[in-house]
Amino acid sequence: DDNGLSRIEEYNMVEELVFLFLVYAIIGWFWETPFVSIKEKKYINRGFLRGPYIPIYGFSCISIIIVLNALEFQQADTFFVILLQILIISLISVFWEFGTSWVLEKLFKQRWWDYSYKKYNLQGRVSLDYAILFGLGGFLLWRFVNPALVNLYGSLQSGFFNYSLLFVVALFIIDSTITVLDLVKVKQFITTFSEVKDNLS
């Protein structure tokens, strides 16, 4: 019936977004980790988690897809519209980067990046040049890479693929849980150490 078909379509849409989230999170890891590792001349895992994925890229890209699709920009190719798309993507990226930095610092008393050395920055959490870079990169991903990934998702549909996706999601959740628990322990240690230091002083 119609309700059954509607539920199937909704499930497929959610599964597609989960697939895209994981792919973009992995792309983000492979984009940042080699770049920073080469710059620092040693291996540096740029991810918040242990696995080869950076969730902020996944969340940012999924937000971009949802917002731009909702605005029905696909058929528009004028210079003004493209510029508007890049601006929207930049703002979405800034939102996630600033918000993630603020939340992580408040929760765990740590910063995973700091742009204070850049001329145009906001609290060291975001910077103008990276906002522009993310806008341009996000635009290219949305217009050219995302359609290919959506087609890939459609071609991979099978029972094996669905179970494999569930397995990867389970690994991601386990990784996230373990990482958060470890960071809570580190925060507690830092708090205890600070209290002991203050008492000794």
Fill in the keyword field for this structure.
201 residues; mainly alpha; two-stranded antiparallel sheet; 5 helices; 2 strands; 77% helix; 2% strand
How many β-strand stretches?
2
The share of residues in helices is over 70%
Q: Rg from C-alpha positions?
A: 20 Å
Tell me the quaternary state.
single chain
Q: Give the CA-based shape.
A: globular
The biggest beta sheet reads: 2 strands, antiparallel
What's the average pLDDT? 85
Cα distance spanning the termini: 73 Å
Q: Give, in order, the helices and strands.
A: HHHEEHH
Poorly predicted sequence stretches spanning 5 or more consecutive residues: none
Description:
Helices cover 77% and strands 2% of the residues. It has 201 residues and is mainly α. Strands 1-2 form a two-stranded antiparallel ribbon. Strand 1 and strand 2 form a beta hairpin.
In short, what is this structure?
The chain is mainly α and 201 residues long. The protein contains five helices and two strands.
List strands and helices in order, with pairings:
Layout (H helix, E strand, L loop, with lengths): L1 H39 L14 H16 L8 H30 L12 E2 L3 E2 H28 L3 H42 L1
Helix pairs in contact: 1-2, 2-3, 3-4
